[in-house]
Design a protein that fits this description.
By secondary structure, this protein is an alpha/beta fold. Helices cover 47% and strands 13% of the residues. It is built from 15 helices and eleven strands.
Length: 379
Amino acid sequence: MTDTRDTGLSRRSFLRKGALGGSAAAAASVLAAPAVLAQAPLVMKMQTSWPASDIWMDFAREYVTRVEEMSGGRLKIDLLPAGAVVGAFQVMDAVNDGVIDAAHTVPVYWYGKSKAASFFGTGPVFGGSATTMLGWFYQGGGKELYAELTQQILGLNVYGFMGMPMPAQPFGWFKTEVNTVADIQGFKYRTVGLAADLLQAMGMSVAQLPGGEIVPAMERGVIDAFEFNNPSSDSRFGAQDVAKNYYLGSYHQASEAFEFLFNKDFMDDLEPDLQAILKYGVEASATSNLALAMREYSTDLQKLATEAGVTVRRTSKEILAAQISAWDTLITDLETDAFNKKVMDSQRAWVEKVAYYELMNAPDLALAYDHYFPGKLAL
């Protein structure tokens, strides 16, 4: 993981290893108290892309807990919400520049640097789930392609790892029923990344906004429909106050995972065991985050339906089919770029092999659920 470039003496190396140069008095002062310096924890400044109240901040806190405990207190994380240092969409630049040491975010938030960012979270759905695509990242060549994009093509001074695989994102919130493609024509809709291109191709106009700006934009009429991610996040920022029709199931963002970013100089300065703790803490938090998500997402979905007057619906097969057709057109355009094509070819090969096993082996869980809880599902 060590970068062989001459990056100079970092602020963190200076603090941890002692000053090189300076006055004799300063040097003597540093040498006089080595035990004190050795006991001082290294503080890592980490900002998320989420408001302080969002459940995803709870996910980030679980990562903090695991890292601090595994490091025996040698690492402390100063966890900050979106806007504390930079905006939600600016965390990649802040990590790259060393303004912050790390970030908890999603790749689509730096989509403005390269559309290929979307392939690592909000790309075409070839038939695999978010778990399928997390497997592609770690075992199917995705991690290497991510490093090629971030470090070689874009020249970013970062390491990135994928965390919790997200359940497929709902089609979102609408003021009226939408059952056909004709029903959504002309809607001003909030989404991000390649999903914006996809839904524009289906007849919507799209605004790419951070989560904290969605409800105010809805209230001002800047948008009239939107998606963010899940029942807990959506309900916490008040989605149910501005729309009452909530459509679950969609192909626009069905394979996303959280992204953990680290400044390369910061991470390369760490002892190998601390590097490993930061890296494998991502995997540990993925398990804990998913368990918490299952509990909270399902609880909040029930509350939306029973307490907030929200009608929970399944996205129609007509709209889903139109999304796949729109992906087909978008893929053709994206493949004109050599790197885009390389990533999608890798993903297609992985999904063809892995999702075949997953889908062939999966029992019909809806049939069993309907047997024990009849009439609840719209089969």
